[in-house]
Fold this sequence. Notes:
By secondary structure, the protein is an alpha+beta fold. 17% of the residues lie in helices and 39% in strands.
Amino acid sequence: xxxxxxxxxxxxxxxxxxxxxxxxxxxxxxxxxxxxxxxxxxxxxxxxxxxxxxxxxxxxxxxxxxxxxxxxxxxxxxxxxxxxxxxxxxxxxxxxxxxxxxxxxxxxxxxxxxxxxxxxxxxxxxxxxxxxxxxxxxxxxxxxxxxxxxxxxxxxxxxxxxxxxxxxxxxxxx
Length: 174
């Protein structure tokens, strides 16, 4: 289902199967649903909403992605994928925008993740911060990056002339 899971000091990374085809479907579904009345936007910082929530029932195109995320997370956590619940949101980042430093340790998450749908060149690195310093991860379409929810992270400025689309994910136990 995915390329080999790579383990680093404070995160995990892998490429998901059929990412190119999957990303076209997800991007089209996002465009279709992002302006619907049921779509919610939260976390208004630095001139934009960082989180865009679309009900999973309106996004059947996401089922293959979320199943792969469950399998990867289950492998990391040594839990059955069926015992994991996933929350997700879209992060649409236009040229000149950033995502401020934050963490996801508000609830009972076990892992947090980001999946990259559309990544123009120079659209900003993911920056993970811990006691040893900062780790800069260049985004790549089809990549899944997972990390502990209490790990502070941010995204550098999108210096491209195109919008970047990613999906933020929190993973917990059912």
